[in-house]
Amino acid sequence: MFSSLKNKTGSEKLQHPVVLLLLVIIAVALGVIIAKGGFIIAMALLALFPAIIYFNRFLNDPRVGIYTVVVLGFIAIGLTRYIRNIPFGLTVDGILVLSYIAVFFRYFYEKVNWSQINRDIVYLSLAWFGFSVLQLFNPEALSRTAWFYAMRGMSLYMLLLIPLVLLVFGRLRYLFVFVYLWGIFSILGTLKGLQQLYIGPDSAEQFWLDTVGAVTHILFGELRVFSFFSDAGQFGAAQGAAGVVGLLIATNIKGTHHKVFFTIMGVFGLWGMMISGTRGAMIVPMIGGATYILLRKNFKAFFYGSAVLAVVYVFFTYTYIGQSNSQIRRMRTAFRPEEDQSYLVRLENRRILSVYLASKPFGGGIGSAGDWGKRFSPQGFLAQVATDSWYVQIWAEQGIVGLILHLSILSYILLKGGYLIMFRVRSPELRGVLAALMSGFTGIMGASYGNGVLGQMPTGILIYVSWGFIFMSQQLDREYIYLLSQNLSPWSLKNKT
């Protein structure tokens, strides 16, 4: 009976009486389940089928996992305002672990090219994570649970993402998809921010403001726009980086439609940065632009860029033009620190920390400061003193030893990545795109001095993926040159090199 089904088409199989009987039984069973379970069960069953398709695709292509992590980096925190008591942030961890499982599934019958991860950046990631693990034995640490939550953004995502990118993203088309995803969600982020600014927060966002967010996001009666990001500081810095990356890619990439898209990404990114009211984010385009000019060895552009920066400095420091605009008014205080009470408070906090940490070279333990400290060890000293900086947070939690190690790793990545882009990439277009990614990174490095943005989502995820592409630059360059020699577009998703 069943042997006759083997050589039949799908439509012919559906006409078989046994198949029809099975379908009727399944339909009746689903009807009974929905009738007894109600609306929630019905929705769960409806979601089951696309979920099966997604995970089937995921297990056959681990790149789907990385794209999912990039998307979740943008929206995971925002989702918690609408669906409470679900740790969407931990979903990122699960997807990354499943991505590695997918790698093994995909290459179960093939040899995995592990040489791709035999790179200095992987060893640096491992060293940084190893130091984080040693922090479990820090006698100053008050909560091991806080360590688990805090170390994820501090070092775990870096360790998991970079080798994964090196293993499965070693082609130009994946770089292309990545920067497009970055652009799409950055544009959506600004549109969401504009809705908050001109229409007002929705009910879920208002509830968040009323319960925890108003202290930092309602200043002098004005809303600091946060979009679907964790906070305004992260929104401003991330959008500043998107502005830099988008505009710089637009100036280098070929193809009118690509230029238009990345120009929109850049403009919307800088627009989002401005409406966030995050003063520290202004340093992102400044440092990012200077980095790009240096990487391209364009001294003429350096001259003009310096002139633009001088004009910006004079505008904010010595004039009151646009003072009626709350965003401009707030940004202007960044150039007049003596008039900024929050800046003076930060200086005092750092003085207090310097006294406390003088005898603690390994800090007070990961998760002892900031929000995690307030949640898991509110009685601790570090939970009472705001860090307001990625580097100050590392200094507070991991001491001067951890800070020196972290800055050394970032400096190495900056110098090595810059060297690869400047002297090892032969293709001007690709060099420009990679220089844009590096410029976004250096801009975030600068912004991290005033806000704890580097290790947060989505910024950390975007930066770690960017590092992977930069350290594969020579491999990508060889593919670029080969595709051109075959009269193929380097950015086509159809290329199967």
Record the SSE blueprint.
Layout: H1 10-14, H2 17-37, H3 39-60, H4 63-79, H5 88-106, H6 120-134, H7 144-168, H8 172-198, H9 203-217, E1 218-219, E2 222-223, H10 232-252, H11 256-275, H12 283-295, H13 299-318, H14 326-333, H15 341-357, H16 370-376, H17 390-423, H18 428-447, H19 459-471, H20 473-485
Antiparallel strand pairs: 1-2
Helix pairs in contact: 4-5, 4-8, 5-7, 6-7, 6-17, 7-16, 7-19, 8-10, 8-11, 10-11, 10-12, 10-18, 12-13, 12-18, 17-18, 18-19
Write a brief caption for the model.
By secondary structure, this protein is mainly α. Helix content is 71%, strand content 1%.
Describe the structure.
The chain is an all-alpha fold and 497 residues long. The chain has one domain (61-485). It is 71% helix and 1% strand. The protein contains 20 helices and 2 strands. The protein has a two-stranded antiparallel sheet. Helix 4 (63-79) runs parallel beside helix 8 (172-198) and helix 5 (88-106) runs parallel beside helix 7 (144-168). The protein starts with 9 loop residues before the first helix and ends in a 12-residue tail after the last helix. The relative contact order is 0.11. The mean pLDDT is 84.
